[in-house]
Amino acid sequence: MAARTSSKAGAGTERAAATIPQLAWNQIRSAPVVLVSGTEGFLADRSIRILRESLKGEDPSLEISDLAANDYAPGELLTLASPSLFGEPRLIRVDAVEKCNDVFLAEMLDYLRSTADGTVVVLRHAGGVRGKKLLDAIRAGQGGGIEVICTELKRDSDKYDFAAAEFKAAGKKITAGALRAVTSAFADDLAELAGACQQLISDTAAEITEATVDKYYGGRVETNAFQVADAAIAGRHGDALVTMRHALASGADPVPMVAAFASKIRTMAKLSGARGGSGQLAQQFGLAPWQVDRARRDLQGWTEEGLGRCIEVLAETDANVKGGGRDPVFALERMIRIVSARGRG
Length: 345
Prior knowledge:
The chain has three domains: 22-149, P-loop containing nucleotide triphosphate hydrolases (Rossmann fold, 3-Layer(aba) Sandwich), CATH 3.40.50; 156-217; 221-340, Zinc Finger, Delta Prime, domain 3 (Up-down Bundle). 54% of the residues lie in helices and 9% in strands. The protein has helices spanning 41-58, 76-81, 102-113, 132-139, 156-169, 176-185, 190-203, 210-217, 221-233, 237-249, 254-271, 278-285, 289-298, 304-324, 328-340, and strands at residues 22-24, 33-37, 63-68, 90-95, 119-125, 146-149. A six-stranded parallel beta sheet has the order 1-6-2-5-4-3, sandwiched between helices. Helix 3 packs parallel to helix 4 (132-139), helix 6 packs parallel to helix 8 and helix 10 runs antiparallel to helix 15 (328-340).
């Protein structure tokens, strides 16, 4: 992939135009310095693992070392990068660069001016402004590095494509309906989606169908819960009720369903009236940028009074489904009706 320029960082920081190659997570390759940036930790971990396996395949004598940039001691990088007696290639993985201490920052900037032969230094930066001077230097070409950008997969279509690639890489056939089903079942956690794909790949010999996915994951509680919440928050009362009843029939428990509503509505309440960019608000409220974007979309048509009313109803429903009421299903239906009406019901 050719080098490209960008004014927006995958790691959520403002940056100058990059002059080094910027690659997708699955395009990682060897370079003296490999900056792995972005908020999607699962993709970052997998990308670094791909690089490790590639380097190990080229030379089984590869020496692998790990450093924590937030707990870095003077001289550690130079010691690990120094040529060994037998000249084995080296891979140095540095975690938490977004929390790096001043000693690491100074020594890594020095290292960029004279990188060690036969050594690959991987820097994992998960976002934020800490270490920006180092990131800017790498992106400007110091050290002869590359950047691997691991942004979160926000859209359902992105997650669908990710899952499709998992099955294609394994040479496993899966129907379109089955692929949609497994993606929907694990849409809120990419690591779990990948794990589900790998289980289906390893456990099934024939083509994977919707019946196969339903056998393994048809009763998945968390996904059904968030599907109910999404439909209700969007004002689709009928869809929310049907999905809720299907979830309960599949073995879902009312308690995590209320928790799914609470998670989404409280995030909406936090962001109601907030001003600023997604990255800024994500840092301010302890959220991921995609959560900020999603909450902003969900807030369309809502009022502060409606949010307040729904939060009260959530508390009442939570108490009822935990034993405080005689009919948990009725409590859920009432909550769905009020949320679907955006607190005006």
